[in-house]
Amino acid sequence: MPTVKSLDDLKKIREEALEKRKAKTTEGRAQVTVAMGTCGIAAGARDTMKAILDTIEQDNLTGILVTQTGCMGMCEKEPIVQVVVGDQEKVIYGKVNPEVARRIVEEHIVKDQIVKENVIPA
Amino acid sequence: MKYYRSHVLVCVDPECLRKGAHEVLDSLQDELVAQGLIDEVQVLETSRLGGCSNGPEMMVYPEGVHYSGLTVDDIPYLVEEHFLKGRVVQKFIAPTISFADEELSAPKAKEVRVVLRNCGKIDPENIEDYIAEDGYMALAKVLTEMTPEQVIDEIIRSGLRGRGGAGFPAGKKWQLARMNPGDVKYLTCNADEGDPGAFMNRRVLEGDPHSVLEGMIIAAYVIGANHGYVYCRAEYPVAVRTLNIAIQQARAFGFLGENIFGSGFSFDIEVRKGAGAFVCGEETALIASIEGKRGEPRPRPPFPAVKGLWGKPTNNNNVETYANVPQIILKGADWFASMGTAKSKGTKTFAVAGDVKYTGLIEVPLGITIREVIYDVGGGIKDNKGFKAVQIGGPMGGCLPASALDLPIDYESLSSAGAMMGSGGLVVMDDETCMVDIARFFMDFTQDESCGKCTPCRVGTRRILEVLERICAGKGRDGDIETLEMLCQDIMATSLCGLGQGAPNPVVSTLKHFRDEYIAHIYEKRCPAKVCKALITYAILPDVCTGCMVCARNCPVEAIHGERRKVHTIDPDVCIRCGICMQVCNFNAVSVN
């Protein structure tokens, strides 16, 4: 445990503590849901998930909630990822390989530009 | 920063550990590694998730799912279902038990939570939770920006007075300890909460221990102490444990120990457990007890600020006093002084007990009236009965009648009315309470807790109790009231410490406000509230009794006679006045006189 030697040290720990507390809440600016049914996993949803998490970590993004769900009923389109940013309409992506997953995070969530090629029309 | 999509909090309280929490934890780690999820899911150890009765248990975020009753064999399935596939496993979900906190409820109207602000809100065993609530910011401010004189000035301006009961201005007390020369000084915290039914300090120590530690460190810096003690009764095992965890964490972060905040100031705290003697709440007895001597008070002066622990200048404050300090430093003296009355500033916690609808812990701004506390915060008298008296200030406080209901709660008003602030006991009594019996009850307590060092308290309280017991037993004599008055006066004037000086208060105040009840007991051999067993008789009303025999069957001493369908009678010589016949009668045919 680092010893606190200054007000700045303390402020840093307070920020981290608040961050940790945030991790426990179910609120997030954006919610990413990866379909993790057997079909999804078989189609490579685990790699998709890993790519999403890696991107979040590398780009130091905050306020993003990554959760899983089961089969969404469109097994031929797996891996499927659903993205909800703020109070906007949900967007469902199909055939999300790790490369697309990375683009979804960096373009859709960060820059608010939907990755049109992979969107499954509602 | 490492990003985890899910956080798992596994309870590692002793009870969960006993039920195999460690094995579950290991198995969970192994399984997450095996499934390749360990980089995505963070496993944390925590405490107090649900109560451990159905442990081992865990909490999974962000879903906020609470699992319990887990075994090692369940883990592979749980990990595959929940963490890999994202499906909540219904069969492991903990049954929702609505956990009612009977001691501390959500703040009611007219309550202001300053000392209790973090209780129930933060994890007391996690210093980071306290830091997230601006914890130790006041200490940082004091050590990096303020001189001891400035701190004293701020505390004096805030008007903070000792919350242990006597109400001595805290800033003045610190000033005295600071001014007294000495290279070694000590700081003590009085956590020897001995009033029956009072648990304000325990709750703060259990729920927000760091606020007390922070207040102590600030006070130690001000007076120049390098060592401090928290004197806590051994009957508070959870408080002692929480406090020790908090001290360890504060040391790890450098808030205790050498060179705190790089200021050159060093301070450390130890917890000393008391054996539960009531008198050890008196500061000189407390100091003697920490020194390892018999917990007995000594005459003052010299006051502890001059000659305290091991003969060195010592500052002693109550838990609640210290807990107020960080807030005053952070929010300023003016904020604190904006609450309360001209001479009594801030808020005060009370443990409300007795015949009131909502009992438990409250915190109200000083200056609030007794009526507001009982009727607005406490919800009024239980079972729609009438109000008779309120006893404020613990066993040495006084009983105030209905005419005092609009009295503001502050140090001076309570003292002049014959009660006292005390540490925060508040017992409400309804109109079926016998005030002579109440005086006898409190006298029995103080008489028992008298340490015996000085004669007035040791012998005097015993004599008072004997007279009161005689009166309650129906053997009161002419002159008893005068004897009581004389005894009370002498004990108050000549006792060594606050225990003896305050012990007669319940008798003095009931004699003043409820004298007619004493007269009824002594001269009419009657207990108006129908409580004192020797002065009441049970009788069966002949025109109501149906002769059902229920009372006769239930009487433990066979004092009730009568045949079926005939009126029954109670033999007063055999009757022990237990009242069972009255409770079992379906026709309200039993009366008490």
Number of strands of chain A: 4
Largest sheet strand order of chain A: 2-1-3-4
The succession of helices and strands of chain A, N to C, reads HEHHEEEH
Tally of separate helices of chain A? 4
Helix content of chain B: 25-40%
**How many structural domains does the protein architecture of chain B include?**
5
- Averaged pLDDT of chain A: 86
Query: How many structurally independent domains of chain A?
Result: 1
Name the overall outline of chain A. Answer: elongated
Number of helices of chain B: 23
- Provide the CATH topology of chain A: Glutaredoxin
Give the CATH H-level superfamily of the largest domain in chain B.
NADH-ubiquinone oxidoreductase 51kDa subunit
Account of the protein in words:
The complex is a heterodimer of chains A (122) and B (593). Chain A has 122 residues and is α+β, with helices and mostly antiparallel strands. Chain A has four helices and four strands. Chain A has a single domain, classed as 3-Layer(aba) Sandwich (Glutaredoxin). Chain A has helices at 7-24, 38-43, 45-58, 98-111; strands spanning 30-35, 64-69, 81-85, 91-93. In chain A, strands 2-1-3-4 form a four-stranded mixed beta sheet, with helices on one face. In chain A, helix 3 packs across helix 4 (98-111). Chain A is elongated, with a radius of gyration of 17 Å. Chain B has 593 residues and is an alpha/beta fold. Chain B folds into five domains: 6-92, 3-Layer(aba) Sandwich (Glutaredoxin); 127-337, Rossmann fold (3-Layer(aba) Sandwich), CATH 3.40.50.11540; 347-430, Roll (Ubiquitin-like (UB roll)); 435-523, Up-down Bundle (de novo design (two linked rop proteins)); 537-592, Alpha-Beta Plaits (2-Layer Sandwich). Chain B is 38% helix and 14% strand. In chain B, strands 10-9-13-11-12 form a five-stranded mixed beta sheet. In chain B, strands 2-1-3-4 form a four-stranded mixed beta sheet, covered by helices on one side. Chain B has a four-stranded parallel beta sheet with strand order 7-6-5-8, with helices on both faces. In chain B, strand 9 and strand 10 (360-365) form a beta hairpin. Chain B is globular, with a radius of gyration of 29 Å. The model of chain B has no long low-confidence stretch (mean pLDDT 92).
